[in-house]
Structure formats: C-alpha cells, structure tokens
Amino acid sequence: MPSPKVIPRKSPTVRRIAERQGHAGRVAIPTPSPVHESARILGIPPSDASTLIRRVRQGFPFATVERLQQAFALSADELTSLVQIPTRTMTRRKASGRLKADESDRVLRAVRLMHRATVLFNNDPAAAKTWMRTPQRGLGGAVPLELAGTEVGAREVEDALGRIEDGVFA
Fold first, then answer.
1. What's the predicted TM-score (pTM) here?
2. Contact predicate 4/19, CB 8 Å
C-alpha cells in the first residue's frame, strides 16, 4: 500500500479534511485579477491597484487607446462612443501622446468591461463583440456598447454579464 502524501504547511485538521474530500494533491492556481488583466491588455506593466491608480492619474500613453481598439476590434465610432472622447480630442491626444486622467479612467473601464464579456463568452472576442453590439432584453432592449460609455451604463452592463454568469439570461 502506498504511503500517504505529505501536504506541507497545512495543519493536521486541514490535511485530514482535504484528504477526505479528495483535494489533498490539488493546488489552487490563482487567476489574474481584473486589474492585472486590464493593465496587460493595455500594455501597462501589471502591478498592484495603487500603482495603476497612480498611472491613471498621470494619464495613460495614447497607445493604450490603440491597444483597446485593436484588442476588441472596435470601429473608430465605437471607440469614441465607448470611451467618450470626441474624434477631434482623440486626434489632439494622439499628437500629445498622453491621455488626461479622466480619459484614462474611461479607457480602463472600457477594457475591463470588454475583457469581462470576452471571458464570459469562452475567450471569444467575436462572440463578446456580437453580444456588446446587440440589443439585450436584460438591459431593456439597449445595446450594451452604447450604455457602456457612462459609469452608470457600464455598471448595468456588468450586472447583465453577472446575471449571465449566474445562469439568468433574461
């Protein structure tokens, strides 16, 4: 009979419970937080939330807008609607190379929302984009991408995504 596995750094009680439930040899693999994933997508070195807040306040490089657009295949109109930065302002920001703090915050909100939709649809950006562009009954017939341009609308879209995650489709 093989000897039982030794589980390091666990109390005897936790070890017995883990063995009884069949979790003795399993290791939990941490998943990246939405903050880290959003930073990664935008090309910002992943860091803790306080560092990301500081970077938002300093203003992201304009390249983050381009990364958002490329990562989720957004048209220019969809992008300006989603981040609420008019086309002429976008042109000025591109020339200066940096966004203002409020614009950076909206870019971060947009990437967080689009990433959450992508993860929900099995990491399929096309499926997420289709859902974001289609009127949703759970949002009163509104198009999620249009709602997501404001904080209140983005929260409604996040709530709708949460309901889908929980198995509530209406």
1. 0.76
2. yes
